[in-house]
Amino acid sequence: MEAEIDRILIRDHDIARRVAAMADEIAAAYPSDAGELTLVPILSGSIIFVADLMRRLPRRMRLAMVSISTYPGRSTRPTEARTTLELSTDLEGRDVLIVDDILDTGGTLARVRGMVHQRGARSVRAAVLLRKPGKAPPGVDAEFVGFDIADEFVVGYGLDYDDLYRNYPHIGVLRPEMMR
Q: What global pTM score does this model have?
């Protein structure tokens, strides 16, 4: 797999350090007496990020999963966000943290925020591992951000190309010949 990567943008040890720091930021943002926190990971890209993040959050929490597709198959350009697994959990009166792998065009995060608000959440915040600054439209932002990156198609640590490379431990850019 290493030979298929053009360059590494963020190494695994830097990801681990930043995820730990994000967990501290998130824990500080929710008072310890606030009760449970409901995490809403956006599958499948956030699966590794949410697993590492939730192990570091020192509070009771629930999971309510949703799946949104914006990069189907071999696409390296986002398409309109399409829901492939609906939120079915009751979120009425809960504090919700949406967890996503990347904030790119903002379509996915905007869609999931709308779903969560519609289900009556008390508060809604978002944590993203990666953000492409300036690409998301105004009004679509995340309260907790791991790293800002350039507008490049990246894989690893849960992010994929054609459902491959999710298990690559770093965040990297594929060699162009691998994206055909």
A: 0.88
